[in-house]
Amino acid sequence: MLSDDEKQRLHQIERQLEEEEPGFAAEFSRPRAHRPSRGWPYTTLAIVAGLMFLLGCLTGETVLILLGIGGLPAALVARHRRSERRNR
User: Fold this and answer.
1) Based on the number of CB atoms within 10 Å of its own CB, is 74 exposed (0-12), middle (13-18) or buried (19 or more)?
2) Given pLDDT bands bounded at 50, 70 and 90, which one contains residue 61?
3) What are the transmembrane regions (predicted)?
4) Mean pLDDT rounded to a whole number for the chain
5) Who's near 61: CB < 8 A, 6+ residues apart?
6) Rg, C-alpha atoms of the chain
7) How far is Cα 38 from Cα 61, in angstroms, rounded to an integer?
8) What DSSP line would sit under the chain, residue for residue?
9) Could you tell me the CA-to-CA distances from 76 to 7, 27, 50, 55, 69 in Å, in that order?
10) Residue 62: phi, psi to the nearest 5?
11) Which pTM does this prediction carry?
């Protein structure tokens, strides 16, 4: 938390910046645009791994089943870790 003196100094700096450089100050007052999620590659990998698992179950291919079993949780964990790192 900021002390009262720090808050007052911050407001002084803000006013001075608005007076000296109004265009520059306006850039800071605008809300930032929401960036779209970049987790789509992990979602795509999870879907592909799930489809590989299903295809392996239907055809009896052990390799596809193992790839699906390993790939699906790996993609989901990677996406979860990325979202946690982004929210810090």
Assistant:
1) middle
2) very high
3) 39-56
4) 87
5) 55
6) 25
7) 32
8) ---HHHHHHHHHHHHHHHHH-HHHHHHHHSPPPPPPP--HHHHHHHHHHHHHHHHHHHHT-HHHHHHHHHHHHHHHHHHHHHHHHHT-
9) 43, 37, 11, 19, 12
10) -65, -35
11) 0.56
